[in-house]
């Protein structure tokens, strides 16, 4: 594949858009991964490069939100540790188990999240009574979703945000902000393994990382400056699109190989 300036600019623009979308709702990989595959990048390299540039998006949004006074406090450390353990276990196990069944389970889960947000228009507008304590959430949903990200991945940020609203009674904005940090934690484990295996195409990855940084920075400020109203429709849209993508792969309408 010839890496022309035009192609690299396209990768940059795609990553910028994906960084903005992913910061608000998750699912940015639905934009970047097809772009890499359409450009002729081999599937395993596309997955690895996509993961590497995605980390920069979640890192940038997390740092930006931290600088704005969010994502602070020692209570976040156990959550990050739980997410990392789940992701590491999932990444280790996926290499030793049959995962074909995920191709039809994941679309159902994504559609359930979309339906959940769609049927509850006032979801997460104000804080509600928590169904779990922070410790209970840290020992159940946080590592479970980290494990899912290690095994498969699509929609992890959306799942984290939804669980924060449903089980911790958080507002959608607060749940989305915390989801960035947890998703960053789970992504780092996967990227480390891909990089160690030499699967990342660093020239393309570097260009897309720059786009992700800018897109995530804009997305973080969008959340904090009245963009909260965009989160719910974007979550619904991205979950439905990710579900359709997974169903299409399952039936062979599109292929990653």
Automatic annotation (TrEMBL):
Lineage of origin: Bacteria, Pseudomonadati, Pseudomonadota, Gammaproteobacteria, Cellvibrionales
Record's bilayer topology term: Multi-pass membrane protein
Record's protein name: Probable membrane transporter protein
Coiled coil: none
Transmembrane segments: 28-48, 76-95, 101-119, 230-253
PANTHER family: MEMBRANE TRANSPORTER PROTEIN YFCA-RELATED, TRANSMEMBRANE PROTEIN YFCA
Keyword set includes DNA damage: no
Species this chain originates from: Microbulbifer taiwanensis
Record carries keyword NADP: no
Keywords recorded for this protein, A-Z: Cell membrane, Membrane, Transmembrane, Transmembrane helix, Transport
Family assignment from sequence similarity: Belongs to the 4-toluene sulfonate uptake permease (TSUP) (TC 2.A.102) family.
InterPro entries, per the entry: TM_pro_TauE-like, TSUP
Compartment(s): Cell membrane
Predominant subcellular localization, coarse grouping: membrane
